[in-house]
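dumping the sequnces here before i forget
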Amino acid sequence: MSRSRYPSPCPVSMLMEVLSGPWTMYLLWVLSTNGPTRFGALKRRIEGISTKVLTERLRMLEQEEILYRHYEPTVPPQVTYGLTERGQELVVILDQLNDLALRWYTPLPDEHSPSERCVGLASAPTVSPAPTVSPAPTVFK
Amino acid sequence: MSRSRYPSPCPVSMLMEVLSGPWTMYLLWVLSTNGPTRFGALKRRIEGISTKVLTERLRMLEQEEILYRHYEPTVPPQVTYGLTERGQELVVILDQLNDLALRWYTPLPDEHSPSERCVGLASAPTVSPAPTVSPAPTVFK
DNA sequence: CCTATTAGTTACTTTAAAGTGTCTACTTTA
DNA sequence: TAAAGTAGACACTTTAAAGTAACTAATAGG
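..and the predicted 3d for all of it:
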């Protein structure tokens, strides 16, 4: 449970391991653009994620001190997640990756397009049919 | 084959998808520190990787124009791989991630430790026994 | 009194990715 | 004559990760 089957003495590898996997980056993204958010709200925003995986990701990122978990013992309970200082640091670099990605993967539609931050985020993986012009799935593997 | 089961209209997600997975970052690392390298040499440096996965990664990164493949039709053939301009751009950012990772995951042994670049790279995943004090596995998941 | 809500947990199934091993062509060298 | 080296391709097996679905506690509200 510590960190997958490949022990990583190489720091950057450890970090990449944390960030790899479906939903993780998107989750950080959502938190960085929306601020602290409750579990249910996260699940609703990250359309298509299962509670299981969402929980897994949150727990893992919490353990890495990239985000925090605030539990309010009301009934029903309210649990809020937000970026820690580490999370903020990370997002700064991810922003740069985003700039790169925009340059590489955006067909530059016309001209002066403002370097936006991950536009077009929408839904999620669909194992199902949906071959129609449905809302474009988002999030990487 | 295009890009896994999760189509990604979000640029940063597409990029992360490319960089995720075992060996990929380490491979880029090796290429950035050693310069253009031949297939066999790569396989020898990235101890533990299978030819299958190495080939897969190389092909994928070539398709992404992050590295190039130079085929010399001698006998036996010589194939050299190296970073493209994109690859170089990427490495710059990965360096920053590395700095972060060093700060986060290095127990700062004594004092003024020079922010080195991914030290301790050694071998690889071992499904096998090797519970002895063998060379520490490297590379992330 | 029955239902909805929140934030999960647990067990089971499915699947994509990685591992493993064998095979190739062509020439040089022992 | 046999072996070795290069850069893979291909088929088959294994496994970890993700998906799916059912279930929980405690209270408020109709």
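Residues 4-5, 21-22, 50, 52-53, 56, 74-77, 125, 127 of chain B lie near DNA strand C (CB under 10 Å from a C1').
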